Amino acid sequence: MSKKIGFVGLGTMGLPMAVNLKKAGFDVIGYDAFKGVYEKASAAGITMVETLKEVAEQADEAIISMVRDYAQNVEVIFGEGGLLSAQPKDKTIIVMSTLDPDTMNELGKKVEEESDLRLISAAVSGGASGAQAGTLSIMTSGSGTIVKSFKAYFDAIGSNTFYYGEEPGNSQVAKLVNNMILGINMNALAEGLKLANNYNLPQEELLNLLKVSTGDSWVVRNWSDVSEWTADTALAVLLKDLKAAYNEGLKHNVTLPFNSLSSTQLFDSMGK
C-alpha cells in the first residue's frame, strides 16, 4: 500500500513537486488556499481536500509545507482549522518554504513546544524548471534520523539532498549562501558581457568560451534563462535572499562586501 503524504501549497513550485511525488508512487493529499489549482492537481492524480484538517488526518507520517513565508506556515499549522485541528501525533512537517534561519528555528521551537508534531526544514534550489524536472537540490536540517527516513520523498523531487545538522535554520543558511553566490556570479557575468559588448564580441561565442574555460559557472551555462528573469519574479526573490544574507552577516559580524555590491547592482538593474 502506497504511503500517503500531505502537501500544502501547490503553487509554481509546489504543484510540480507534488506531481513528481505522485509519479514516484506516493498518494499525495493536497491542499491550497487558491481553489483554481484544484482541477489541474486532480487531473495529475493528486487527491485534493477542502481543509487542512483532512490533510493532517490522511497523511501517514509527513506533511510538506510549501507556502510563502513564516506567517503562512504559522497559519497553516496553528490557525483556526489548521493542521493541529486534527490533533495529529507522531507526524512530521517538512517545511520547504524559504525563511530566514532564526525564523525557521523559531517555527521549529513553536511546533515542538505547542504540538505533538515534529518539524524539519528542507529548503530547495533549482527554480520552477528544477521542480518540474524533479532535479531540485534539497538542503535539509533537523533530526537526522527523520531526514534519513524521508529519503524516498526527497529522491522523488530532487537530484541531490544535503544535510546540515540538527538546527532547522541551518538549511536556510545553506540556501542563503547558495543564492548569495548566484547573485555575485550573475553580476560578474553581466559585467563581463558589458565589456565584451563594447568591442562587439558575439555574445554566444563568448558564452561558449566561458563554458569550457575558467570563467564557467551555472549562470554562464543557463544565461539564456537567467537573462530573462524579471523584477516581479525570480529577481525579486533573489534580491530578498541577498538582503537576508546581508542581515545574517550583520548579526554575526561577518563582512560580505561582494554580497552588498551585488544587492545594489541587482536593485539598480531591476527597473531596466
UniProtKB/TrEMBL annotation:
Domain 3-hydroxyisobutyrate dehydrogenase-like NAD-binding: 169-263
Taxonomy of the source species: Bacteria, Bacillati, Bacillota, Bacilli, Bacillales
Protein name: NAD(P)-dependent oxidoreductase
Gene3D superfamilies given in the database record: N-(1-d-carboxylethyl)-l-norvaline Dehydrogenase, domain 2 (1.10.1040.10), NAD(P)-binding Rossmann-like Domain (3.40.50.720)
Keyword ATP-binding: no
Record flagged with keyword Hydrolase: no
Location of the 6-phosphogluconate dehydrogenase NADP-binding domain: 4-165
Cited InterPro entries: 3-OH-isobutyrate_DH-rel_CS, 6-PGluconate_DH-like_C_sf, 6PGD_dom2, 6PGDH_NADP-bd, HIBADH-like_NADP-bd, HIBADH-related, NAD(P)-bd_dom_sf
Record organism: Niallia oryzisoli
